[in-house]
Amino acid sequence: MGKDTKQKLGFCEGNKCACLMFLVVVGAIAAVVCVTLLVEDIRDIYDHGENNSSLKWWQKTIIYQIYPRSFQDSDGDGIGDLKGIISRLDYFEYIHVDTIWLSPFFESPMKDFGYDVSNYTAIAKVFGTMEDFDELMKQAKKRGIRVIIDFVPNHSSTEHDWFNRSRHAKDDKDPFWDFYVWNDGITLANGTRVPPNNWQSVFGGPAWELDSVRDMFYYHAYLTSQADLNYRNPKVLEKIGEVIRFWMTKGVDGLRIDAIPHLFEAKDTSLNLPEPEPGEGPDLYLYTQNQPEIFDVVKQWRKIIDEFGSDRFLLAEAFGISREDRRKYYEAGSVPFYFQLIKAKARCCATAACLQGIIQEGLDISGSWPNFVIGNHDNLRIADSMGQKYADAMNLMLLTLPGTPTSYYGEELGMKGGDYKGLPPKDPKAITSGNLNNSRDSERNPMQWNSSTNAGFTSGSPWLPITKNTDYKNVNVESMKTDNTSSLNLYRRLAEIRQLPAFRTTNIVFPDKVGKVLVYERYDDQTSYLIVINVDSSPQRLDLRAGDITTGVRIFSTKSVIEERIELGNVFLQPGEGVIIRMDD
Ligand SMILES: *[C@@H]1O[C@H](CO)[C@@H](O)[C@H](O)[C@H]1NC(C)=O
Ligand SMILES: *[C@@H]1O[C@H](CO)[C@@H](O)[C@H](O)[C@H]1NC(C)=O
Ligand SMILES: *[C@@H]1O[C@H](CO)[C@@H](O)[C@H](O)[C@H]1NC(C)=O
Ligand SMILES: *[C@@H]1O[C@H](CO)[C@@H](O)[C@H](O)[C@H]1NC(C)=O
Ligand SMILES: *[C@@H]1O[C@H](CO)[C@@H](O)[C@H](O)[C@H]1NC(C)=O
Ligand SMILES: *[C@@H]1O[C@H](CO)[C@@H](O)[C@H](O)[C@H]1NC(C)=O
Ligand SMILES: *[C@@H]1O[C@H](CO)[C@@H](O)[C@H](O)[C@H]1NC(C)=O
Ligand SMILES: *[C@@H]1O[C@H](CO)[C@@H](O)[C@H](O)[C@H]1NC(C)=O
Ligand SMILES: CC(=O)N[C@H]1CO[C@H](CO)[C@@H](O)[C@@H]1O
Ligand SMILES: [Ca+2]
Ligand SMILES: [Ca+2]
User: Fold this and answer.
1) Which ligand gives the minimal distance to the CA of 231?
2) What's the Cα-to-Cα distance from 424 to each of 150, 284, 345, 419, rounded to whole Å?
3) Which of 19, 167, 225, 330 could form a disulfide with 368 if both were Cys (CB 3.0 to 4.6 A apart)?
4) How far apart are the C-alpha atoms of 115 and 103, rounded to whole Å?
């Protein structure tokens, strides 16, 4: 075919909208909205002419995040484990996911459920053994499933042997003396010892803790039991390099680096956080986040994993970074997670304009490979943040955007988070900060596999109960398998559609005027698809004709399994409904 798509996309000549208004009365609410796609300017930015065959595996995959504690328990202790994950590997084939990312499963006192590592090369007993991990790798490989593991370099548990050696070190001749960020602090006139500055921890309170053994303060970005490693010390880099090689040798396909913006703190510990400007919130991490030294370390880690082949993947967890810093993460050989869609509701009410703006920001990366995330273990599930009605539509959006999507376990079911109001929190963030609103328990609720007691997650008593509000008797994998309109089957269908060549490109165009419905077009030389998602709370009717193209085939709808030829001049969507339309030539 090879037709001129630019001409084809001229929805309205010279962007002057010439759409006819269809005055159809539906429930007396639907308004006709005319959508024009603006071609020239946007196309030049996003059109990188990606070549399907030259894409790397991580550009063609869906990443599925497993929170091991909550995915599948194999031994009845109520806590998910590696054997449980192994027993569910076939599920990933079923939903067409071929990359899993495991949140931490390393030895840990579990003060932050594994994000406090006490031995980077050992498995937490509660999750299993190294043999279990090797078996997991073997079984995953057999099924063509890639495995990415979490890597938590910013801090170790204070129960790590390195910390013990460091706090017992007598002087700088001890190799562990400077392994962590130590400081004498300040001694006041009345003899009281105080931290060297007013730096704050992410989980609330001062970021310095006086250690009674060494009689010095150590810095911790998170909990007091999560001491920050000192990346100005080459010996730390050496040890952490060994950890990376250890897991690469085990055959893992990539690392997801946790909390990387916190890797370095300002060298000058006399710097105090300034009073916030009137009307502005304080910049609590001015001296402890996004320091320029980070990128050299990322480059070093990229070099190490390249020893094992250039196609291993490096993902950086970097929340709320600047455009410039995003560029630097890419330049250093990593892909920085783009998280802003998670915050769409809070940031701008998740309206169509809001979502489009966030997506465009996510694509503003000068030719680098994009990625999008709509949920994780730190944020409310989509069904809770956006509303159940919009859960399928958000999966539709995630899986049709350019780049690599990351799905959080359970989101393929449109599952709600647990309702733990009134129960004591398990999340240390809530406990430490003394604010129950900070609890991340809800989104860490057990995966719902079937309609048996405890949803097939465990034969024992789950560490977080399965609560009534999640309707697990209906919202579970087994029940949803048999219903071709279920969230699960919609997700599977979307995962298939993603494999079409047009979705493998980074080509995307948006309308020049945004209404209440999120609209974008994805295309390659051959075929063009319109994605239309009603994120509004009222039904919407749209005219989507593009020049002389007046019909298309609706190949997907969140409300129907029937493929249907439709009139583009009259597209009707219920609230929360999303469709994919293959445009006729
Ligand atoms: C895609 O690959 C084909 C065949 O390998 C090549 O001829 C073409 O130039 C490539 N296109 C781009 C945009 O790289
Ligand atoms: C792109 O790759 C997928 C599988 O990786 C394949 O099914 C499809 O045919 C390819 N498309 C083109 C245009 O090469
Ligand atoms: C971590 O655990 C492994 C396996 O048990 C052990 O060989 C190693 O010495 C431990 N490392 C540290 C730093 O404690
Ligand atoms: C910590 O180090 C001290 C001094 O070397 C040692 O006596 C102690 O056994 C260590 N503790 C642990 C838990 O390894
Ligand atoms: C010492 O002085 C500081 C600052 O004025 C005060 O907060 C603290 O309570 C005093 N400590 C004692 C033991 O008096
Ligand atoms: C927690 O959230 C509720 C509801 O939004 C709010 O009323 C309350 O003030 C919050 N509590 C704290 C300690 O922030
Ligand atoms: C639900 O899953 C559990 C764990 O896999 C299994 O033991 C149980 O038999 C299942 N129940 C049904 C009704 O399939
Ligand atoms: C969906 O399921 C219904 C009921 O089982 C069945 O009648 C229908 O043919 C199915 N539709 C498709 C497209 O598979
Ligand atoms: C999104 C994410 O990975 N958040 C983690 C960041 O790091 C802290 C400390 O390791 C964890 O508590 C968060 O869960
Ligand atoms: Ca278990
Ligand atoms: Ca740090």
Assistant:
1) 11
2) 28, 28, 27, 12
3) 330
4) 8
